[in-house]
């Protein structure tokens, strides 16, 4: 009987290990080069290819060992030492070790590093956005990166930072093969090149505008994939994603429309999933615009938008409104002195516009996202609703959009006046949201930088207790709420679904997860 049970187990294992998992992505990656992307589609694909020094436990924001088995600070948290995992190889067969870790860390951080390839437009903006600046710059967090021995790396900091390990768990910091980066040059991470990490899936081909093909890493150091291949398709339209899921041409689909809930639940071949809320959707207001540089105008826009009605209409009970840029799990980092939610008061908005010198209103562009995200599942319709609200107080809105890559380029370049955008947490700390939106290096889109906010964020990163950090973040919340350059709209769960034969899919609070946990049991 024991032998029969063993054979049955082996057969079941073989069945679940076979097949191709097809995922409906919500757009096309911008880049597959680690350290060089902000968007969630790029991050989703990169999570399959690369490992970081530190990762998180599936379905949580809790830190877990990745390519580093352990990490520890010195006494004042001005230095962090990482003990690396042994016996790991990149997909091209080259070893992962301290030299490889230093290679990656230095090429992101040091503008003069010959492997940074900045002459090819790779500027690694996540470094100034989250680590203050590049090597030698005034606000840079990292002072030096040191190989201690073959499997130990030390990162020395310019000042105390207790958040550093949490920051390093973000998907930006995937370890790439030094040999592949050097060999590919400008092609690395593009459809014309390759992407080589140590992760659970091996890059195969990026078919521009269509899909990214990957295969299982059979020698993966961690949990080996339960499928033979992975295809991440570019399907921008959420309705098409759902239709293809129903038809069985894809196995998994995320960022579906909230109003798809009933259709998913009514289909016996589908299973409904909800991604935990760890995001923010907001309206950005650019200080470079002649109207928006007036605080009363910004406050009037805030008063004119009926947030709750918009969220009720387009998020179907999956979204909440408040005045915070951090999601509910991080509420400890907000101020009790800031109102819990925004007022909807068109009369007060009109009064402020008149006081600002615009009693008859004005005309302005509102840019809406060309792709869906959990924080904006129906960008155009929600933008139309905002435009209608603003028209009621005399502000004529011209709705505009453009290709996603160009949208991001223009947004971060400070070229959009008023726009939809959002972010999904990439590490489980308030520093992610506050830093991504209010670090001195991350406010070019709104054209506003308050030195006191940057100073408070630095102090919060050095805080040794949650209580000390909470007091500092409360001040940041108050300052940014009053400035009104970023108007929080929603924190939301997102709708996802899979075919009933998909097993083991553990959704992350972040924008995506590695698919090495997923098996296809009975897929034909």
TrEMBL record:
InterPro entries from the UniProt entry: Peptide/Ni-bd, SBP_5, SBP_5_CS, SBP_5_dom
Coiled coil: none
Span of the signal peptide: 1-17
This protein's UniProt keywords: Signal, Transport
Domain Solute-binding protein family as annotated: residue spans: 62-444
Keyword DNA repair: no
GO molecular function, one term: peptide transmembrane transporter activity
Keyword Signal in annotation: yes
Pfam families named among the record's database cross-references: SBP_bac_5
CC terms in the record's Gene Ontology section: ATP-binding cassette (ABC) transporter complex; periplasmic space
GO biological process: peptide transport
Family that this chain belongs to: Belongs to the bacterial solute-binding protein 5 family.
Protein name as catalogued: ABC transporter substrate-binding protein
Species the sequence originates in: Deinococcus cavernae
